[in-house]
Amino acid sequence: MRHGVVLLPEHRWETARQHWVRAEELGFDHAWTYDHLSWRWLRDGPWFGTVPLLAAAAAVTTRITLGTLVATPAHRHPVPFAKEVMTLDDIAGGRLVCGLGAGAGGHDEEVLGARPPTPSERADRFAEFVHLTDLLLTQPTTSYAGTYFGCRDAVMNPGCVQRPRVPLAVAATGPRGLRLAARHADVWITAGRPGWGEPLPYEQALPDLARQVDAVDAACAAAGRDPSTLRRLVVTGAMISGVSESVDSYVDACGWFAELGFTDVVVHWPRPDFPYQGRPEVLEGIAGAVLKPEGRG
Predict the structure, then answer these.
(1) 101 versus 109: which is more confidently predicted?
(2) Is the peptide bond preceding residue 158 cis, with omega within 30 degrees of 0?
(3) How far is CA 221 from CA 70, 259, 262, in A?
(4) Among candidates 272, 269, 259, which has minimal Cα distance to 235?
(5) What is the DSSP string of 61-72?
(6) Hey, which of 11, 51, 55, 222 would disulfide with 15, CB 3.0 to 4.6 Å?
(7) End-to-end CA distance of the chain
(8) Can you give the pLDDT at residue 295?
(9) Which is nearest to 283 in space by CA: 238, 236, 240?
(10) Is 91 helix (H, G, I), strand (E, B) or coil?
């Protein structure tokens, strides 16, 4: 099991720097930040840009993998975004993972003044977004003509440090998204039951997660892919609660997730209030009991 943490892009760098460095010191395998222009419950608070934040985090860390959770076509075009991903991978020395999601509407789509897509359009747009991003990060030159995105002779030189490209992590729970993950992803991401309703304690979320695992296995089989080649990452704290309440709950939850076939579990850096309210000492305890903090051997 690999372990990750999400750090919201809400702090000025003087404070944020300490958190990113500490995440590496604690022994987390990967650290992520949200890729939004503003976000849900924190829309009126401080919120910084994802790409420069990850570039800064890459410059002050040496081991931990860094990622977007998740970039969406709501405000991203694959061509400039792929160039930024290639650059981040270079700055990080091959420690980047590119998380992609369909987007859930809201401010990120409304702020640019376009008509919000229908659910079907959003799924179609995401399919193009993932496909073209994959092509751009893999090929030296790409031309593409789609319904939502296109490019002509888009050059990616020198290409990603990681070969054949930066790993793609695709967030999906529905049939179309899971098929995309099976075709393109190195990592499949789920946060549990779709939506933003009442979170379930992790014990109660297990049946939903088990059904999703079965569905992604079936999608891999239909694509002619060995399901064991796809990492499975569960993000907790939004729709799955109770995981990081204590060291014991974290250990217990990780055991259940591993039994379902998950390879990675992610929690949120504890905040003093909603959302993701928690106690920093619990994160420190998890590191001491489960992870391998730097300097401990």
Answers:
(1) 101
(2) yes
(3) 25, 20, 17
(4) 269
(5) -SSSEEEES-B-
(6) 11
(7) 18
(8) 58
(9) 236
(10) helix
Task: Quote the pLDDT of residue 115.
Answer: 86
Judge if the upstream peptide bond of residue 167 is cis by omega within 30 degrees of 0: no
- What are residue 285's phi and psi, to 5 degrees? -65, -40
- Give the range among 51-55, 111-115, 275-279, 292-296 with minimum mean pLDDT: 292-296
Structural Rg of the chain based on CA atoms = 18
Q: What is the mean pLDDT of residues 171-181?
A: 96
DSSP-derived pairing of the beta strands 141-145 and 150-155: antiparallel
| Alpha-carbon distances, residue 128 vs 54, 103, 111, 124 (angstroms) | 25, 13, 21, 6
Alpha-carbon separation of residue 114 from 17, 35, 106, 283 (angstroms): 35, 19, 12, 41
Sign of CA pseudo-dihedral 265, 266, 270, 276? negative
As given in the structure block, the two tokens for residue 52 are: 């420069």
Which of 16, 138, 152 minimizes the C-alpha distance to 89?
138
For residue 230 the two structure tokens come to 């796809």
Tokens linked to 163: 């070969």
pLDDT at residue 80, rounded to an integer? 98
d(CA 174, CA 267): 23
Reading the block at residue 263, the tokens are 């390879």
Chain mean position to CA 62: 20
The amino acid at residue 109 is: E
d(CA 232, CA 190): 8
Give the distance from CA 142 to its chain's centroid.
25
Is pLDDT of 133 > 60?
A: yes
Does the pLDDT value for residue 203 go beyond 80?
A: yes
Positive or negative, the Cα torsion across 249, 250, 251, 253?
Answer: positive
